[in-house]
Amino acid sequence: MNVTRGFTGRPRVHNPGLPPGQYDAGDDWPVLSAEVTPDLSPADWTFRVDGLVEQSRTWDWDEAHELPSSAYEGDIHCVTSWSKFGVRFAGVSLDAFLAEARPLASATHAVAYAHTGYTTNLPLADLTGGRAWIVWEYDGEPLPAEHGGPARLLVPHLYFWKSAKWVAGLTLLDHDEPGFWEQNGYHARGNPWEEQRYAGD
Amino acid sequence: MTETFVPATRFAVPGRIAVSNRSAALWQTATLTEIRRETPYASTFRFAVPDWQGHLPGQHLMLRLTAQDGYTAQRHYSIASPPEDTGHIELTLDHVEGGEVSGWFHTEAAPGDEVEVRGPLSGFFAWPGDRPALLIGAGSGVVPLMSMVRHHRARGLSVPLRLLVSARGPEELIYAREFGAETTTVFTRSAPAGVPVGRMTAAHVAALLAEQPDDGWEAYVCGSNAFAEHASRLLLTAGQPVDRIRIERFG
Fold first, then answer.
1. Does the beta carbon of B16 lie under 8 angstroms from any beta carbon of chain A?
2. CA dist., res. A150 & res. B234, Å (int)
3. Which of A192, B21, B85, B226 has the most CB atoms in a 10 Å sphere around its CB?
C-alpha cells in the first residue's frame, strides 16, 4: 500500500451499495458523452432489434410505449468514479422487446447502437432477465436530451457507458464485438463490483 | 462467426487511435517535483514518472491517493504536458470547493510527495498531430488542448492548429503567458480595457471556420457540460460536420 502523505479523504461512510473505487455523487449527475447531443424528437426516435433473432423488428415511439411499462429504482455507477443512488427511471423492460424478436439460440452477445452512431457491446445475459430497460423517463419527467433522451438503454448493474444514450437498436451476435469505448481501451464487460474499468482489469 | 455488426447509423464518433492497454492496467508511482501557480484557482503539478510509456496529446490518466487506513480516492485528469516531455507528466488542477483529491493537491501536496497514476487512457480525444485541429476550451477545459498546442510547437508541425479559449477574466486564464498567434481568447466576466466581455459567439467560431484548410478541421471541445453544449452547437451552426467534433466534458 502506497500511503499518500497528509491525505485523509472524506469521512468514512459504510455504504454497501458503493462499488470499489467509487464515490457518492449526491445530487450531481455529470454528463460525459463524447459526441454532440443530437436534436432528436420522440417522433424521430425508433428502436430496432435485429441480427440473430427470429424476427427483426423496429418500434417507433408509440409502438414502444404500447409495451408493458417497467421501472428501475436503484443505483448507477460511472467508470469515471461517481455513483448515484436512488435514481428512478421508467420505460419498458428489454425482455419485452426481445420476446417479440425472439433471439436465436446462437445469440450470445449484442451491440447496442445509438442514433448518433455510438456503440457499446454487451453479453446477451446482461440484457435479459429483468436487468435492462429502454427508458424515457427520469424521476417522473421526460429524460433530458443530454442524458440520452428521448430514450436510452439502461443496464444499471454495469458501468454506465454501457447504457447507450439515444439508443437506436440492438444487433444480436454470436460473438463479442467491441463498441466505441471498448475500442478505446475500456473493459469488454464493465462490472463495477469487479472494478472492470479498462481492458486488462 | 455468422454475422458482423454493421452500424445502422453513421458512426459519428469514430475512435481512430490505437490504444495500448498494457500501461493502462498498471498503477505507477508518480513523484511530485514542482508546483506552479497558474491562476488564483488553478495550479500545475509536475511529476516524475520514470516508466511512463508516453501518451498522445489529449489523453487522460487516472490518479489515486491512499490514506493511512487504506481508503483510496481516484479521479480522471487530462494530461497537460506534451509527449515530448519524456519521463514526466504535468496536470493542471482547479481547486474544487470541497474537492477530496484537488483539495489535497492545493493544500497539502509538496515536492517529493508520491501519488499513483495509471494510463494513458482513452484514444478518442487524442490528437496525434496529423490533421488540422480546431481546439475550443473553457476554464480548465484548456488543459488537454494545451498538450496539443505544446506538441505542435515542440515538433514544429506545419499542420494548421487554432485555439479558441474562454475564461472568466484575464487573471483566470490558464497558460495565459504561453499563448501565441494560434490563440483567440474570450472573456466572459471581465476583460482589459477595450476588450469586449461576453460569451463565446457564432462570430468567434465562424471566423475560424472561414480559415479552415481544404480538408476541414478536426474540432476538439473541452470544458463543462454547459460549455460543451454551447460550443458544439456553435460549431454545427457554423457548418462543422457533426462527425468531426470530439467532446470531453468535465463531470
1. no
2. 22
3. A192
Q: Which of A31, A48, A118 sits opposite B13 (nearest CB)?
A: A118
In chain B, the domains with their CATH numbers are 28-121 (2.40.30.10), 133-250 (3.40.50.80)
The complex's ipTM?
0.90
Cα A200 from Cα A53, distance rounded (Å): 31
Q: Are B148 and B161 in contact (CB under 8 A)?
A: yes
pLDDT per position as a tens digit, B95-130 = 998 899 999 999 999 999 999 999 998 888 999 999
Q: Which residue has the cell 448493474?
A: A157
Q: How many domains does chain A have?
A: 1
Cell matching residue B154: 515542440
- Would you state the pLDDT for residue B11? 43
Point out the residue among A7, A30, A116 whose CB comes nearest to the CB of B67: A7
CATH number for the domain spanning A140: value is 3.90.420.10
CB B169 within 8 A of CB B190: yes
Q: From CA B74, how far away is CA A9, in angstroms rounded?
A: 11
pTM, to two decimals: 0.92
Interface check for A173 against chain B (CB to CB < 8 A): the answer is: yes
Q: Are A151 and A134 in contact (CB under 8 A)?
A: yes
- Rounded distance, CA B64 to CA A175, Å? 35
Residue A28: list chain B partners with CB under 8 A: 251
List the grid coordinates of A142: 421526460
* pLDDT tens profile A78-130: 999 999 999 999 999 999 999 999 999 999 999 999 999 899 999 999 999 99
Pick the closest to residue B233 from B88, B167, B140, B136 (CA basis).
Answer: B136
Confirm if A122 and B5 have CB atoms less than 8 A apart.
Answer: no
Domain span including residue A55: 47-188
Is A94 within the bounds of a domain?
yes
DSSP-derived 3-state class of residue B175? coil
